[in-house]
Q: What sequence folds into this?
């Protein structure tokens, strides 16, 4: 919690990536950048409570992609509403009380799953590109989330190779190229362009 809070406050003051006033090498900056504007709130506003509100709103947004995923899988509106309700009642929703990336990553993971389901439904390149971009954004939260991109790509390759389906293989290429380009751009930004 202290790492994200210090990074966001330093970023808001325009000091770069600092921890307790010292420059550090930390590559996963999306969450600190998202909460950095909260540091500009008036001093009488408790920053930690403001971040809790941001986290609560963010993790609550997981209800919408959870509904969309369930609706896509089951085709039933009632089942999708039940899944959304169960998502709201998950104990993980209490993570909003902490300064943690999970409050942002939960809805993003569900959005990536929804896009992957759409991508597997019809071989459209735009869906592959959108899914790859969300997977790249997830990587900027935590490095382990790149596994979701690997699973999506493996599914596309498997579906394309199993039936010699050229549109699926083209979709897999679009996904892989977009993900690689987004990750390369992010690392170039970290290496050369972080002095905003």
A:
């Amino acid at each position: 919690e202290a790492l994200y809070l210090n990074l966001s406050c330093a970023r808001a003051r325009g000091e770069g990536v600092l921890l307790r006033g010292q420059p550090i090498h930390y590559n996963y900056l999306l969450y600190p950048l998202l909460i950095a504007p909260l540091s500009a709130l008036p001093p009488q506003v408790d920053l930690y409570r403001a971040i809790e509100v941001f986290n609560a709103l963010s993790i609550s947004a997981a209800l919408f992609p959870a509904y969309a995923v369930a609706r896509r899988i089951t085709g039933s509106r009632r089942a999708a509403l039940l899944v959304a309700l169960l998502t709201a009642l998950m104990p993980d929703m209490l993570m909003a009380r902490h300064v943690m990336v999970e409050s942002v990553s939960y809805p993003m993971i569900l959005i990536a799953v929804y896009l992957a389901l759409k991508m597997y439904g019809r071989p459209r390149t735009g869906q592959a590109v959108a899914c790859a971009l969300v997977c790249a954004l997830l990587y900027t939260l935590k490095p382990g989330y790149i596994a979701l991109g690997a699973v999506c790509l493996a599914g596309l390759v498997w579906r394309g190779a199993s039936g010699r389906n050229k549109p699926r293989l083209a979709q897999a290429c679009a996904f892989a190229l977009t993900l690689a380009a987004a990750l390369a751009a992010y690392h170039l930004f970290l290496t050369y362009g972080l002095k905003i």
Q: What stands out?
A: The chain is about 70% helix and 0% strand. The first strand starts at residue 18 and ends at 19. The mean pLDDT is 81.
